[in-house]
Q: What sequence folds into this?
């Protein structure tokens, strides 16, 4: 990102996004939760899954394809296993509500799991890992969108999966680990951004409809369309293929609702599990083990001396701290994408600019 990109105040960005979502019709508490989640995505450096999503969310509220109020329907409730119908409610709000439900159960039972069918999009998975660090839990979160597909199974040319992200979070004595990865090499969000800007990827991360590797995101918009390559690419893509199947089983399989059902529009099926460290080997021994591993990783001789080994999420946590203190730089495409929504609802992103 260019150093001359404007700086925004993080708290003011949350207020802006909250106000825009409310004016579009979203319940006040939901709007505040979604806004904070999106800004946290940008603070962590996931700028395709932060405020870049806000314009799309506003359109979904306006069109009635994201529910603006209500509550999830409880379809099954056992002490350590729960299934919700998300009723097309905002994904970030549903995930945080799910965490509120699971935390006391995990502390009482050792582990607790929630599956959510018919959620709307849940934004940046890494953001929710912050709560794992704060609560001293090991968290596993996965989601798929059964309403669309952009990733072919390894060896194929027709899309079956979405990127199917999987996230893991756990604390260390200082900080923690936040893994946020997907079963495809890149994401739809990054592909859409590069296509809109007329840019190509640095490496072939897609295939065209004939199965030929390419760095051109435009193949996703061709007729017939190409697809994203699974992690491992053309030589070892069975690894990403396996991960995609794992996420499908955890989400659509356990929720009993997914790609075998009628499409409803942009959304998500979600899997969320919390493990209480005290229920297994104990928190102290968990930290002893994982601190040791973390030290071995950080102290590992780097292949490039200018790029020392770091832990997943470490750079994001540092960015978040700086952004909260010094301001947030948004990708230049975000302000432009928000202009129509600002005009419709009488709010100004410029009001969130830092003045000093």
A:
């Amino acid at each position: 990102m260019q150093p001359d990109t404007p700086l925004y105040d993080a708290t003011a960005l949350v207020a802006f996004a909250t106000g825009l979502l409310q004016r579009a019709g979203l319940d006040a508490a939901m709007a505040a939760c979604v806004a904070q989640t999106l800004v946290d995505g940008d603070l962590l450096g996931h700028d395709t899954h932060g405020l870049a999503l806000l314009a799309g969310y506003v359109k979904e509220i306006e069109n009635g394809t994201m529910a603006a109020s209500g509550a999830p329907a409880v379809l099954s409730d056992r002490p350590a296993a729960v299934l919700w119908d998300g009723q097309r409610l905002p994904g970030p709000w549903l995930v945080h509500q799910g965490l509120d439900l699971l935390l006391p159960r995990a502390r009482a039972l050792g582990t607790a799991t929630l599956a959510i069918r018919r959620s709307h999009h849940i934004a940046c998975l890494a953001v929710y890992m912050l709560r794992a660090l704060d609560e001293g839990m090991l968290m596993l979160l996965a989601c798929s969108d059964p309403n669309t597909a952009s990733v072919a199974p390894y060896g194929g040319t027709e899309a079956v999966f979405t990127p199917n992200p999987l996230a893991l979070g756990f604390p260390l004595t200082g900080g923690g680990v936040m893994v946020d990865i997907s079963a495809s090499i890149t994401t739809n969000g990054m592909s859409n951004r590069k296509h809109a800007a007329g840019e190509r990827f640095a490496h072939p991360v897609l295939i065209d409809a004939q199965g030929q590797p390419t760095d051109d995101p435009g193949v996703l918009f061709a007729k017939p369309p190409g697809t994203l390559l699974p992690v491992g690419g053309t030589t070892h893509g069975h690894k990403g293929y396996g991960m995609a199947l794992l996420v499908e089983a955890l989400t659509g399989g356990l929720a009993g609702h997914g790609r075998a059902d009628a499409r409803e529009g942009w959304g998500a099926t979600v899997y969320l599990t919390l493990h209480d460290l005290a229920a297994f080997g104990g928190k102290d021994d968990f930290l002893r083990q994982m601190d040791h591993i973390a030290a071995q990783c950080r102290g590992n001789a780097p292949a490039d001396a200018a790029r020392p080994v770091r832990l997943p999420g470490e750079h994001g946590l540092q960015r978040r701290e700086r952004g909260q203190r010094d301001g947030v730089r948004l990708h230049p495409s975000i302000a432009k994408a928000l202009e129509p929504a600002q005009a419709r609802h009488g709010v100004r992103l410029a009001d969130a600019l830092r003045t000093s």
User: Anything to note?
Assistant: The mean pLDDT is 96.
